[in-house]
Predict the 3D structure of the following.
Amino acid sequence: MNLELLLPELSLLITAIAVIMLDLFTERKGLLTVVSIAGLAIAAGFAITMWGTAPQAIFNNMLAVDNYALFFKLLFLGIAVLVILVSVDYVSKFARFHGEYHALVLLATLGMMLMTAATDLISIFVALELAAISFYVLVGFLKDKKSTEASLKFVLLGGVASAVLLFGMALTFGFTGTTQLPEIAQVIKGMSTQSLLANPGLILGLVLMIAGFGFKIAAVPFHMWVPDVYEGAPTPITLYLSVGSKVAGFAVILRVFYSAFALPEPLSLDWGMIFAILGAIGMTLGNVVAIQQANIKRMLAYSSIAHAGYIMIGLAAIGLSPTTDTLAQSSILFYVVAFTLADLAAFITVIAVSGKLGSDQISDYAGMGKQAPILALALSLGLISLIGLPPTAGFIAKFYIFSDAVSNGLLWLVIIAVLNSTISAYYYLRVVKVMWLNEPVGEGKVPSSFTLRLALAISCLGILLLGIAPDFIIKLAEMATSMFGF
Amino acid sequence: MSFNYLSTIIFLPVAGAIIIALVPRLSSRQIKYIAALFTLIPLAISLGLFAAFDRSAAMAGQMQFEEFASWIPLINANYHLGVDGLSLPLVVLMSLLGFLAVLLSWKMNLRVREYFAWLLLLETSILGVFTSLDLLLFFIFWEIEIIPMYFLISIWGAGRKEYSAMKYVLYTLFGGALMLAGILSLYFTTGSLNMVEIAQTDLAPLVTSIPLAAIFFLLLAGFAVKLPIIPLHTWLPDAHTDAPTAVSVILAGTLIKMGGYAMIRISIGIFPQAAQDYAPLLLGLAAVNVVYGAAVTLKQTDIKRLIAYSSISHMGFVLLGIFALGEASLVGAGLQMFSHGIITGLLFAVAGIVMHNTGERDISKLGGLARQMPAIAVIFTIAGLGAMGVPTTSGFIAEVTIFLGAFASNVVSGVQIYTIISLLGILLAAAYTLWLLQRVFFGPVLEKFNQVRDADNLEKIYCAIFIALIFLVGLYPMILTDVFRTGIAPIAALFGG
């Protein structure tokens, strides 16, 4: 039992409990923010010290401690810090339950960290539920009509998705006799291709798992919950769902499909093609529907559905050549980081603006360029990165993921994707236009706390840094993916 | 190369943009001086490079003033700049127009700070396109230009400015999207993003799942939107017409030249076989561009829209020169790009003055202005003569070189027919130009324009610069042809011409 390998998770768990306890005894709720961030920083410190060490399996191969998991753990810890920073303005809206809010954010982080480390279907499911249940509660935190409806919808659909996922896992277990990813890989490799493909059980299991995970990453057609939940949830939680939960979903998918179902090739060709088609549909539907949205949170929800489609291009590329391809995994990792930064910049601005206006309508952003030039600039930068225009992170991410897809014979998918970027420019730039060209409707400045501005500055710098000098993150992503696999 | 001249040229404007954007409490006069300074220095350096450029035959096809730094090693992308005879004149043209655009905008008083910041960023991105030798870098500069252009048209434009700006963005992004797919396919085929290296590689043996002709057309789609080739041209009249004057000058002067430049450098430099195979198609489109563009020009009633459509016709000549694939015709295409840059730049500049001073842009409501605006009338007439290709102007020498070169080129069979059809364009150009001059400047003097001012000193100065260049190139074309030839000879040699 190597408990020291679990130090990041344990310290986070202790922080979560400490925050709840502290909430009972203190009136100064600002302290909760400080303690939460301190806990996240400590966890990150432990995670950094483990970076680069040889991969280890712990708890009877339930969890792995490798660079891949650490990369995502650090990403989630960073995102959680930003989420808590931007929540400072927002939590004042809740009269009570500050402690629970912070604790749940930390627990969701814990769940997502475990998701990326899990190497057994059972531990994957447990970690996934830990994150999901925390999110169910967080989404309903505003307790108004929309928030409650969103939460209920999320619970019901999430429950169905979990059931589907579990069913897929059960079928896989029945077919292979094991729940551990490396052993599943061994069993499948040992079978003849003929008997593998003739047996529908495993294929059905795979399809059901894709559906279950597809719910997490907002893949079409499992995306129905996304716009409503994004709109109704407290905006910091929407932010966390869009960048945290989705990224964790991709991390799990990548690990499961790459380390358990990569061979033999006919099998991976199957799921590769499923991801290619889901990706093509997802990005097209997301972008086309986003055009009609008047609410910026709904627009960003559909945009995130589209971006899930782009990321699936990377999964498809892995499926098409699982053994030779080295770039696809790191390109997915780079893409999720770039997407995270851009979405952070966008949502943080939305939080600030809705604090002033009490509205998320795009038309109410009119004249924001005059009223709050810094916020408007940050939102514009985030949106430009989401379009994928240089010199932002979004461009390099797209270039990276598309170049890999082209080299795996997915030129058709890339052409669909680049045309989709053109469509997306229309609705992203519409927001930019409203902010800079239209006359302001209201008066006065838009207030924002120091912590919010700090979080915004971090994400904007990140967008530019990854757009101009992406080498460092690409190297980290390479390191993270080079050690896991066969 | 100890000093990074090209980086300095490219990034000085953006440095100026950052200063203008960030330093608080600048008066609009200070902003204009900063903008002028940060475009004048790149102009001076690029003229210096033009003088120092080695024109000897031994240097043909060699990049000069090269800069190289590793950028993203994992995808083999580098920060790689350089100029050869093909790109250097365009760099000079852009840095010149960049400086003149600042002078042209001297009367700008709406959101001055943002305006000049975007204008300078625009200059950086276009200069970057002409000097990048790495495909990723090239593409980045190509796309960066969209954002400043969007704001410049939609905030400071006129008419249906927001519609035109969005149309411009979507067209460019559409072309850029296909171009990106083409660049990725090319990268996958060759494993390199280095344009020089790829141009020296014989692609035929590197057959992959993606046919070379497909890559050729994916890339060409991006360039065709920019040049523009009919039927991808409809953004151009809208954008040129609704943009503010200085931006129209840059649009017509250099921005659409990115398309022609990229066609020579990439489409035919890297894919000689595909270019030769599909040359008849593109020559046909060139003839359509010339004749259809000129015919539509005749019908225009808006002074700026008329000049915009004439650009489409003139770009047809460039396309003809390029896909005739002969050395002389390619040099002519280069010359025409430069010459059109200064002539149409001047046309847009004086049209801007006319519109600004009279408050009228509808040709049917103008007339007899030669009496009230004598200086402008003279300048406009000279520019018009250039556009018609009258001898001693640069327009003449460029068009003659294209026609003679294309007619004599034996690379593409049937090129003579397209050339003869395109000759019609000259005739039509004379018709629409003279008709325009007659309607705007001659005829009965209109009372309502009696109070209209003529050009002021600043306007006379920048118009004089344009005119001097038109005659300099017209009378002494060697100054450019020598340079163009060093860049184009190796490309033309691919076709044995």
Remarks:
- The longest helix of chain A spans residues 145-176.
- Residues 265-486 of chain A form one domain.
